């Protein structure tokens, strides 16, 4: 797939995947890691706004539209009649980073944490049938053979992911370089 370590957050709808992913990104970025994410959507979505120039380019038939400003850039790719690309085709499109967190893609074989919440749409455990699930994060007591974390134990879950991906022993100087200098903890940087 990619040389960059990947780790997934999976679970049924309303199981806390997005909240956990956001909190993990915040925690890992605070620790000095450069994080990218991939979010799988089962529904039709559009990140563009009708009436904008980029929207008009797409509606005119452009297969890809890149919009660039001083703050960010985005590449929109229209599938038109193409099938949804598999995860291993999407990952190489990301810029270099230390870790890619993947939200969703529950049927892919990358290592994952399964989210479980009482309020989830389904409560059927995924881990008994998915050997790629390495741990469970839940808001309720769970009996399992896998490590179980509280859904709000962000520090513990971040430590677990770093250990599983081998990033726990990587010094700051080996982390992805950003704008020509190694990413460092701002509290220890001179």
Question: How would you summarize what this structure contains?
Answer:
The chain is an alpha/beta fold and 190 residues long. The protein has 4 helices and 10 strands.
Describe the structure in your own words.
- The structure is a single chain.
- With 190 residues, the protein is an alpha/beta fold.
- The chain has a single domain (6-46, 84-182), classed as P-loop containing nucleotide triphosphate hydrolases (Rossmann fold), CATH 3.40.50.300.
- 19% of the residues lie in helices and 23% in strands.
- The protein is built from four helices and ten strands; from the N terminus they run βαβαββαββββαββ.
- Strand 9 (177-178) and strand 10 form a beta hairpin.
- Helix 1 (17-30) crosses helix 4.
- The longest helix is centred in the N-terminal third of the chain and has 14 residues, at 17-30.
- It is globular, with a radius of gyration of 18 Å.
- The relative contact order is 0.24.
Number of domains: 1
In the sheet with the most strands, the strands line up as: 2-5-1-6-7-8
Q: Tell me the helix content.
A: 10-25%
Strand percentage lies at 15-25%
Spatial extent as radius of gyration: 18 Å
What would CATH call the homologous superfamily? P-loop containing nucleotide triphosphate hydrolases
- Which whole number gives the mean pLDDT? 86
How far apart are the first and last residues' alpha carbons, in Å?
Answer: 37 Å
Principal-axes shape call: globular
Number of strands: 10
Q: Helix/strand-derived class?
A: alpha/beta
């Amino acid at each position: 797939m990619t040389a960059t370590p990947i780790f997934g957050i999976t679970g049924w709808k309303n199981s806390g995947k997005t909240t956990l992913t956001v909190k993990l990104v915040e925690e890992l970025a605070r620790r000095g890691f450069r994080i990218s994410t991939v979010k799988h959507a089962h529904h039709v979505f559009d990140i563009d706004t009708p009436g904008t120039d980029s929207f008009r380019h797409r509606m005119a038939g452009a297969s890809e539209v890149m919009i660039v400003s001083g703050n960010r850039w985005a590449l929109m790719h229209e599938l038109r009649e193409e099938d949804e690309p598999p995860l291993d085709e999407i990952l190489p499109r990301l810029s270099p980073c230390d870790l890619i967190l993947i939200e969703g893609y529950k049927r892919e074989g990358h290592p994952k944490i399964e989210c479980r919440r009482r309020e989830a749409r389904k409560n059927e455990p995924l881990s008994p049938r998915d050997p790629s699930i390495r741990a469970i994060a839940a808001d309720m007591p769970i009996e399992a053979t896998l490590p179980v974390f509280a859904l709000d134990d962000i520090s513990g879950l971040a430590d677990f992911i770093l250990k599983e991906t081998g990033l726990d022993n990587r010094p700051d100087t080996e982390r992805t370089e950003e704008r020509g200098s190694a990413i460092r903890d701002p509290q220890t940087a001179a």
